[in-house]
Write a structure and sequence with these properties.
By secondary structure, the protein is of the alpha+beta class. Helix content is 37%, strand content 24%.
């Protein structure tokens, strides 16, 4: 009883703090505060009652430490909200910070929850997952034989990461296929250069890929653009295929390079406030014709870039409809080193279009099957990194045609010719 009372007092104090912390939203009336407090007290008592019943009566006492129970409750609370909100234990939070810094260890895949199932958003290039042929929207049914039904994102990431050289066995199910496929991967160090493949495709058209949006992305993009401009670039293919997103601020910094100052990039709307983000910065390539490549692995922050450039008529979008992740997650650190990732808003393109579960529709739709895309990726890896391969390129890769890239180049050539004829 004494422990129960102490816990109730502690939770009550936390509740009072939460009720008096100011927010940017309209302040509640005193009647609303009292009503919320009374209702919250009622359910805190219920929570405490269950917590103590578990502590006293659960068959396995090793599983009833306060931290385990509270962490489990927080995890369940966040997971009940939506697939993208989650509770992160201290190690998971540390891993997340390493991700945004551009390095971590594991199999090299970005995952999410889609229709309640653990789903590949995108494999990261030149990683065990990429080399094994994992592709966007593959469902991960089992990890090392354990069913992933009900598994949270944080726990799934913990199972997929591990020591370099340690194997992990995945059971996957491809989109629109009932067949289950087993794949064994060997974990490796994962490095995340966010701008890759910078090169001239011909004497006019430059090419670069952004593989994700992290802290170094903007600086890496600026260096790539300066390199291509120095080589005579008159049009740019910006490849965002299989880009799972990343930091919102990085996508804003990338978008603004191709827009006029003060142009609207994205608007985030949540219960507390509406925040428009507009182009700033000092380096702008506003006269550069651009074609943006997207596919079903183009998600989140990469959809912000594609949507902003499309809505301002700054780019032609080529490829397949994008993934459709239009919610914004804020990471909120907690006092013990853990954190919560909370969906706090949805974002809208400059034309006030929400892409959540809808995606960006390309201006020129060019479909590639999963098998075609797999061959294109393998061929591209050999072209960009010849030093990693000591054998001749197989015939099936030599003949693999990137029809999305080819269409983008055709479009840009037409735009360049048209611009040259303008008085």
């Amino acid at each position: 009883m004494r422990n129960t009372l102490k816990l109730q007092v502690l939770l009550s104090l936390l509740l009072i703090v939460a009720l008096v912390v100011p927010t940017t939203a309209k302040p509640p009336t005193s009647e609303e505060v009292i009503g919320d407090r009374d209702q919250a007290y009622e359910y805190i008592r219920l929570f405490t009652e269950v917590l103590m019943q578990v502590r006293r009566g659960y068959v396995d006492p090793d599983k009833t430490e306060y931290q385990d129970l509270i962490y489990g409750a927080l995890n369940g609370m966040l997971r009940a909200l939506d697939p993208h909100s989650q509770f992160m234990k201290p190690k998971a939070y540390k891993d997340m910070r390493e991700d945004t810094a551009g390095k971590f260890a594991g199999i090299g895949v970005v995952i999410g929850l889609r229709e309640g199932r653990l789903t590949v958003i995108s494999p990261i290039e030149d990683t065990p997952a990429f080399r094994a042929g994992l592709t966007a929207r593959d469902r991960i049914i089992k990890i090392d034989g354990d069913d992933t039904t009900g598994l949270g994102l944080s726990d799934a990431v913990g199972k997929l990461r591990g020591e370099k050289g340690a194997p992990v066995r995945l059971t996957i199910r491809r989109e629109n296929s009932p067949e289950e496929i087993e794949i064994e991967l060997v974990r490796d160090d994962i490095k995340l250069p966010s701008v890759r493949g910078t090169r001239m495709l011909d004497d006019q058209i430059g090419y670069l890929r952004i593989t994700q949006f992290n802290d170094p992305t903007e600086a890496n993009l600026q260096a790539a653009l300066e390199d291509l401009t120095g080589k005579g670039m008159q049009g740019l293919v910006l490849d965002l295929r299989d880009n799972p997103g990343g930091l919102l601020r990085a996508s804003i910094l990338v978008s603004q390079k191709f827009l006029d100052r003060r142009d609207l990039i994205v608007t985030t709307r949540g219960p507390a406030q509406t925040m428009p983000a507009r182009a700033g910065g000092n380096h702008h390539y506003t006269d550069l014709p651009i074609a943006v490549l997207v596919n079903k692995g183009t998600a989140s922050a990469s959809e912000i870039v594609a949507g902003a450039l499309q809505d301002h008529n700054r780019a032609i979008i080529v490829g397949q409809r994008s993934y459709g992740k239009g919610s914004v997650q804020s990471v909120l650190p907690l006092s013990d080193g853990s954190a919560i990732r909370l969906t706090t808003a949805r974002y809208y393109t400059p034309s006030d279009h929400s892409i959540h579960e809808k995606g960006i529709e390309p201006d020129f739709k060019v479909e590639l099957t999963d098998d075609e895309w797999r061959l294109v990726r393998q061929r591209r890896a050999r072209i960009e990194n010849p030093e990693r391969y000591d054998d001749e390129m197989p015939d099936e890769l030599k003949s693999a045609a990137d029809r999305q890239l080819e269409r983008a180049v055709e479009v840009l050539r037409g735009v360049i010719i048209f611009q040259a004829k303008r008085p």
